[in-house]
Every structure is written in structure tokens, then in C-alpha cells.
Design brief:
The protein is of the alpha/beta class and 265 residues long. The chain contains 7 helices and 7 strands. The chain has 2 domains: 200 residues, Rossmann fold (3-Layer(aba) Sandwich), CATH 3.40.50; 39 residues. Helix 1 crosses helix 7 and helix 5 crosses helix 6.
């Protein structure tokens, strides 16, 4: 999908920040927004695999308050703010096994990485959007926020559920001031992080990667399209949501899950 030609330059002149933008869904989003003409800034803990990427990279751990303030200050100094903010940072790096395996530190980390880093970055970069009466914020959540799996995503799911609620509240607050806020909830997606997650679960269960993948598909109720999503497919949705074509969309949570949920929502 990334090799498509003649993409519309509907984001020409826009400044976009993509957090967690060097791998997986974040990288695909950064590439797609650049292809649409945006000036893209990427921040992550790890540097891009290719150093000559067509966007600016700022290394930072946004769960660290000082790093977050440094990134925001650098962007405000150079660009005066952003038009598009993609809060993609997040991770499920916490022990599986349910409530007894999770201590206070795990819960604090889950909230810092998957909720509070987005809240803080919004708080710093949103004022410039409000001054211009224009801007779009996308929070990348997860279907886990509505479908928690106690044995593997308890803390992560709780934090993503909180992110969903915060995102809806923020959309309601700033909608009349020209800023749109939208949530995107990917389901099972073919990324390095997902592969590592499944490998760890497979080792713990003493089964193969393929068997664990099928168990996860079964655990979430099946995926009618029969496969995981490609990161580029989520990037296409995000591009639409930040484009002029989505000018009347705010406060919604878009699920991109291959038809995973067996219920109407």
C-alpha cells in the first residue's frame, strides 16, 4: 500500500507530530501524512531505522516529563505549534496472568505510557490550536479498551479505556473552538510489537507462535477478514480523519479490527 502513486497533497502546508512514529502503526502514519504533503515531526525512544527519512526526528521518552517538555518546546520554537497531533505512543509491556501479577509500578507505568503522556502533550500543544481555531488531535487507542483480556492485557486495557473517555471529553470541550479530537482503535495488527507479544505468550504457554496466534484470534471472538491488519491500513484511516474530508467528524472512536467484535456498537 505504501507504493501508491499520485496521492493527493491535501495536507500541504500542515505541521504534524507523530509520537511513537519510528515503528509499526506510527511509522506508517508518519509516512502517509508526509505523502499527503504535511511537514512531519516524529518522536520516539528509538531512532528510525533509516536515518534519511523525510521527516524530523526528536528522540524522547514521553513518559518522562522532562523529555515531553523538551519536545514540545522545540516544536513550538521552530514551528509555533502543530496543526495535526497523532498521539500514537503506547505499549502493553506488563506481565500477564491477571491481577495478582500486577503491582503498583506496573499500573503507574500503564497509565503513564498509554494515557498521561497523551494528556500532557495535548495540554502543551493544544493552546496554539485554540488560538488559531484550527487543529486535529488523534488518539491511537486499541480495541483492548473495550475488549479487555484479563490474562494478558489487564493494565493496558484499563489505561486505553481511560484514554477513550478522556478523548471524548476533550472533543466535547474544544469542538466549538475549531479543534477536532478523534480516537482510532486498531485491533490485531501485524507489527514487531505484536510479534514480540505473541512470542512471549507462546513461550509461557509452551506452544508455537502459530498456535498462539490462532488462540488469540479465538480469544477475541474471531476476525471475519481472517488476518491481522497491516499498519498502512490504519494509516489510511488516520489520514482521512485529519484531512479536510473529515471536517465534520469529532468525538468518535473508529474501530479498525477486521470485523472482530461480534456485537453491534
Amino acid at each position: 500500500m505504501s507504493n501508491r502513486q499520485n496521492w493527493s497533497k491535501d495536507l500541504e502546508g500542515k505541521i504534524a507530530l507523530v509520537t511513537g512514529g519510528t515503528k509499526g502503526i506510527g511509522k506508517a502514519i508518519a509516512d502517509r501524512l508526509h505523502a499527503a504533503g504535511a511537514t512531519v515531526i516524529v518522536t520516539a525512544r528509538n531512532e528510525p531505522e533509516q536515518v534519511n527519512k523525510p521527516y524530523q526526528f526528536i528522540g524522547a521518552d514521553l513518559a518522562n516529563h522532562e523529555d515531553l517538555e523538551r519536545v514540545a518546546a522545540a516544536i513550538i520554537k521552530q514551528y509555533g505549534g502543530v496543526d495535526i497531533l497523532i498521539n500514537n505512543m503506547g505499549a502493553n509491556i506488563f506481565p500477564g496472568g491477571g491481577f495478582s501479577t500486577l503491582n503498583d509500578e506496573h499500573w503507574y507505568q500503564a497509565l503513564e505510557i498509554n494515557l498521561l503522556s497523551s494528556v500532557r502533550l495535548d495540554r502543551v500543544l493544544l493552546p496554539a490550536m485554540l488560538e488559531r481555531n484550527s487543529g486535529v488531535i488523534i488518539h491511537i487507542s486499541s480495541t483492548s479498551g473495550q475488549f479487555p483480556i484479563w490474562e494478558s492485557t489487564m493494565a493496558y486495557s484499563a489505561a486505553k479505556t481511560a484514554l477513550n473517555s478522556y478523548s471524548k471529553s476533550l472533543a466535547t470541550e474544544v469542538g466549538q473552538k475549531g479543534v477536532r479530537v478523534v480516537t482510532v482503535s486498531p485491533g490485531l495488527t501485524k507489527t514487531e510489537a505484536m510479534s514480540a507479544f505473541l512470542n512471549d505468550l507462546a513461550k509461557q504457554a509452551g506452544i508455537t507462535f502459530e498456535e498462539m496466534t490462532q488462540k488469540l484470534f479465538d480469544r477475541v471472538g474471531g476476525v471475519p477478514l481472517g488476518r491481522m491488519a497491516e499498519p498502512e491500513e490504519t494509516a489510511e484511516l488516520v489520514h482521512f480523519l485529519v484531512s479536510p474530508g473529515a471536517s465534520y467528524i469529532t468525538g468518535a472512536n473508529y474501530f479498525i479490527d477486521g470485523g472482530n467484535f461480534p456485537t453491534v456498537r
